[in-house]
């Protein structure tokens, strides 16, 4: 976004038609203001893992503090006169951002894990109460988020549902690779007279990170008669376009604290009006039970609701950027692709997917000589990079199946990938620091076997 902040020409007009500094400064946020917004980040750390916990600018932290103080100053007034109005305002912002038909389709919840529990709970009840037959199928991607898999186990498997995991290829070369695997899983789910009651589709898988062709997969679900479609877009809002009319799912969730600058933790759950809204309930039962999911979710007992109330402030923040969230998304995507290519060139490795299959995160192959041979090795290497090099980045172990030939470098098969993120606070130096850390390890003959267990 440097082009926004070019020096003004002597004739009083810049090449992007901004007037001179003497007359008026650019209305858009400056580089120095961005640095100030994130000056609370730990200095000296290459923080290239925005995907895990997100990032919250100082102005949003200040807005959250004001909401928190309103509650502490006069909790009764806050509860009776402010909380409901504030949550409705946040829901309205979400409704407009995601192009939903009605604000009643939007509930605010803590995170995508809570949203998954809400949806999967009603699926479990349908099996337990006989609306679904034992053995009817639920289809999900094998790389679904771990907590969501646990919810499938807790609500669906124990109630009699038959769970089918779509084994997605990685590294992946095209959307068609995913579509073919998904179609086969649906056919398997419909075999022997069974029905597919739910398809759970990630919009952006967490690890390894891949942008999934959700519109195409939802369309296939409709063609194949799948009862309900739930899209887990935990990483999506603020990272890719999220449009309920285009996606067409029954349920959709995304976290606002990952890529939309809110403090942890806040997410939305979209439930299409034609879906069975009356059967959806928050897993924490409060005195609002039975008043509709949005109202149930807006009060689950005395707690800090401030993170859910600052969504309008987060929208104001992104609108300080020329082009708003659309331009931020593009800038982050372009930058993470550029940095990913820089790293693979430095290490002689490959990306985990084509650039058009990544969002603001991309998988970068690590040198095979590091000897990443297990999930434990990946975690130990991640810890070593944090503690010895001040680099914060997740590491993925990619197991090779029998007879499978993965991506290779000069030392053998690549079994380790780093998931790098790019957010507006990142600089090129962050990625150079990571590059140099790996180069130092390779030069010194390091392997993961040298690391003690965590």
UniProtKB/TrEMBL annotation:
Gene3D superfamilies: Type I PLP-dependent aspartate aminotransferase-like (Major domain). Keywords: Pyridoxal phosphate. Pfam families: Aminotran_5 (PF00266). Signal peptide: none annotated. Residues 83-348 form the Aminotransferase class V domain. This is Aminotransferase class V domain-containing protein.
């Amino acid at each position: 976004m440097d082009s926004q902040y070019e020096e003004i020409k002597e004739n009083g007009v810049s090449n992007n038609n901004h007037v001179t500094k003497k007359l008026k400064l650019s209305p858009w946020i400056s580089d120095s203001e961005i640095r100030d917004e994130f000056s609370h980040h730990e200095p000296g750390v290459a923080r290239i893992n925005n995907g895990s916990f997100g990032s919250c600018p100082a102005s949003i932290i200040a807005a959250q503090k004001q909401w928190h103080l309103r509650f502490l100053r006069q909790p009764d007034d806050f509860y009776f006169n402010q909380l409901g109005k504030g949550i409705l305002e946040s829901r309205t912002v979400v409704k407009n951002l995601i192009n939903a038909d009605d604000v009643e389709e939007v509930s605010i919840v803590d995170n995508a894990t809570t949203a998954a529990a809400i949806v999967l709970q009603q699926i479990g009840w349908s099996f337990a109460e006989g609306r679904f037959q034992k053995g009817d199928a639920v289809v999900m991607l094998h790389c679904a988020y771990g907590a969501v898999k646990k919810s499938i186990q807790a609500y669906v498997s124990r109630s009699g549902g038959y769970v089918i995991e779509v084994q997605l290829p990685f590294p992946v070369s095209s959307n068609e690779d995913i579509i073919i695997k998904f179609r086969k899983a649906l056919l398997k789910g419909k075999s022997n007279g069974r029905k597919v009651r739910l398809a759970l589709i990630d919009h952006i898988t967490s690890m390894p990170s891949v942008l999934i062709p959700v519109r195409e997969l939802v369309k296939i679900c409709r063609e194949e008669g799948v009862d309900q479609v739930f899209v887990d877009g935990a990483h999506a809002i603020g990272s890719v376009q999220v449009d309920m009319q285009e996606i067409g799912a029954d349920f959709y969730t995304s976290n606002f604290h990952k890529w939309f600058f809110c403090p942890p933790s806040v997410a939305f759950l979209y439930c299409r009006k034609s879906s069975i809204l009356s059967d959806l309930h928050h897993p924490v039962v409060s005195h609002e039970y039975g008043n509709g999911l949005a109202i149930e979710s807006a009060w689950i007992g005395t707690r800090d609701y401030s993170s859910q109330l600052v969504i309008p402030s987060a929208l104001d923040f992104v609108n300080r950027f020329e082009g708003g969230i659309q331009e931020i998304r593009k800038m982050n995507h372009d930058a993470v692709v550029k940095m990913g290519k820089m790293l693979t060139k430095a290490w002689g490795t490959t990306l985990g997917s084509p650039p058009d299959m990544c969002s603001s995160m991309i998988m970068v192959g690590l040198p095979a000589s590091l000897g990443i041979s297990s999930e434990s090795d990946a975690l130990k290497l991640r810890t070593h990079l944090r503690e010895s090099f001040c680099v914060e980045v997740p590491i993925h172990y990619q197991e090779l199946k029998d007879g499978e030939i993965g991506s290779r470098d000069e030392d053998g098969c690549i079994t380790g990938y780093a998931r790098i993120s790019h957010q507006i606070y990142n600089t090129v130096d962050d990625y150079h620091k990571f590059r140099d850390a790996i180069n130092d390890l390779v030069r010194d003959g390091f392997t993961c076997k040298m690391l003690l267990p965590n």
